Amino acid sequence: MYSRAWVRVRSTYGEPAWVAVNLAVPLLSSSAMGLLYRSAGVGNYAGFAILGGIMLAFWGNVLWSMASQFNWDKEEGIFEIYLVSPAPISAILVGMSLGGILATAPSAAFVGLIGWKFFAVSMHPSWLAVSLTFFLTLASLYAMGMLLSSLYLAYGREAESLNNAISEPINFLSGIYFPAIGVGSPFPFALQIAASFIPLTIGMDALRKSVFYANGVTIVWLNLVVLAVMAAVLLVLGDRALKLLEERGRREGTLVVRLR
Amino acid sequence: MAIVEVKALARSFHSRASNVVALAGVDLQVDEGEVFGLLGPNGAGKTTLIRILSTLLLPTSGHASIAGYDVAKEPEKIRPLINMASGAERAGYEFISAKGNLWFFSQLYGISGEDFRRRVNALSNQLELGEYIDKKVYALSTGYRQRMTIARAFINEPKVVFMDEPTIALDVMTARKIRDFLAEEAHSSKRTIFLATHNMAETEAICDRVAIIDKGKILVCDTPDNLKRTFGTPAYVVEVSPPPNTMEIFTSIRGVKGVTTTLDQERGLARVKLVVEDQEAVDSVLKNLAAANIRLLSSWRQEPTLEEVFVNLVGRGFTERELENAS
Fold this sequence. Notes:
The complex is a heterodimer of chains A (260) and B (327).
Chain A: H1 2-12, H2 16-39, H3 46-67, H4 69-76, H5 79-84, H6 89-119, H7 127-155, H8 159-173, H9 189-195, H10 199-212, H11 217-252
Chain B: E1 2-14, E2 19-31, E3 35-39, H1 46-53, E4 61-66, E5 69-70, H2 75-78, E6 82-86, H3 98-107, H4 113-126, H5 142-153, E7 160-164, H6 172-189, E8 192-197, H7 200-206, E9 209-214, E10 217-222, H8 224-231, E11 235-241, H9 248-251, E12 256-264, E13 269-276, H10 279-291, E14 295-302, H11 306-314, H12 318-326
Parallel strand pairs in B: 3-8, 3-9, 6-7, 7-8
Antiparallel strand pairs in B: 1-2, 1-4, 4-5, 9-10, 11-13, 11-14, 12-13
Helix pairs in contact in B: 3-5, 8-11
């Protein structure tokens, strides 16, 4: 598990161009939103954009470096090495998640620091609620990545298209840069309900409340419970889906793509 | 003692468009410490058999076991005992050194730091990885990537290693180095090497026994020498000048079963390969050449190759069979 985490961290920082991209992309997109808020005369909302940039870095990592990673490994012949080894696939995925979190943390911190300084964001954090929310949001996001990994293994080469297809709708519905659920949401109630099935939506809502409005655990408890349940359910589903897919793959011969 | 046992193993792949029989009742036994070659053209069923034995694929019917464990029902008991490598896989993660990659793959087997250091030093020496062990994979040449792949396949000191075309597209020196390494590992460390290949030279060079597979069936299984002796026909090659006008001086002799000629116009000679039954036929050839005033420049006996064994068994060569399989 920890060796896969090490691979993820080393790979992320193995290429200077990647480091620059990892730092620049979330910073630029959240800065753009921050400037938009400022030009619209609601500069105090710029903090939402910065917070969104931080979480976007993790979400991007889940989507591009975790969910579709096994599919790339499969196409390159590495996935079969995992399967032939005694290591459980779920342990490799957990390692990939931990590595993803560690590898993304510096760029997320960079976005936070630069954004906070540049936009002079005013924060009133309730640190316990912030920490719990952050931890549970990452847990549910990476658990979702594990589930997506198994789905991508089934869909194979369409994984990249699937990433593209779900990336923007989830960014939009989860309210990366604006409140998607509750007070201030621009969405009708039905859409808010639908958006609440995305862990990022629940996490972003609780983070905004606890970072900017000093809402403590007693206020965001429902978000925390929902995130914990989502993380647990997604983990179990991901593990089961992987086992089922492995069995199906062994039966149908779809675990490897190289054909000779 | 047999470590790999295969009985009546069959595997077919069904789709809406077709039903492909990849293995049609394979029986095999491979001993501990043996380099076992599975030789056949592309599409013969080699990779399918390796996938079943390495627990990646379930058989449709039949039975296979590694060290007594059933490949279909007990994959978790087999996996710590085996490893695999192919000539087509990516060596590892590009932005990590060869050593870093080997450490990562060793962790899939729970190998301790001390054991890893001992093992990686030994493998690095055997495969002559030298300073390349510390280079990132993207900076390695094809040959060194493949050496790393081979080192990875032996990092857990497996009892059985499955190799699928391990020297494909490699230069002669690297291919030889890898073959020497495989033979040494099998014979000195009692590891079983199960080698799927369509490279005859490789098979002849290192395999203790060879099974020839075609259309999902094992045609024969024996040592390379026995196969050549039993199913091959020795040839007799003569270089003569001037080139004969007609092949009748060879074909008219009883005991000459086949004649192929290559003309070397620059040197004004012909190289004639004769498939003969016995020495009497060779003597008759020499007499006929003298009678026709054709000078014999050189002659030698050519041992049969495994390709000839395959041709004799199947009626066509690897290339023709691969074209058939592809169409």
